[in-house]
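On clarity, I found the account of how folds are encoded harder to follow than it need be. What matters is that the chain and its backbone geometry are given together, residue for residue. I therefore recommend that a typical entry be quoted early in the introduction. An entry of this sort, consisting of the sequence and the corresponding backbone structure tokens, reads as follows:
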Amino acid sequence: MIFLKAFFVGGAICALTQIVIDKTKLTPARIMVGIVCLGVFLSALGIYQPLADFAGAGATVPLLGFGHNLWKGIKEAIDAQGVLGLFTGGFKASAVGISAALVLSYLGAHIFKSKMS
């Protein structure tokens, strides 16, 4: 059942994002930044955590989940370090995911011998 929940919630998030891409003249970069900020905003309001608990990876893997992860890291760091945590919490919370993306992209570029166009 958890797979169905993840599939439908993740699919709904992606479908809504695709509608925004198709119906607006916003660039994909602006849409992606907006989605991450929306994830932070929904997490700050306490709305996103119940969705993440319900749908698992369907809610935590999309960019909304990245914003949620940033918020959790910032919140924990502020509780532990005060105002300084505002600047360090997001980096600590997202370091593993960003590092993995960079390393895997680098390896993929070498394995498939990509070239600049």
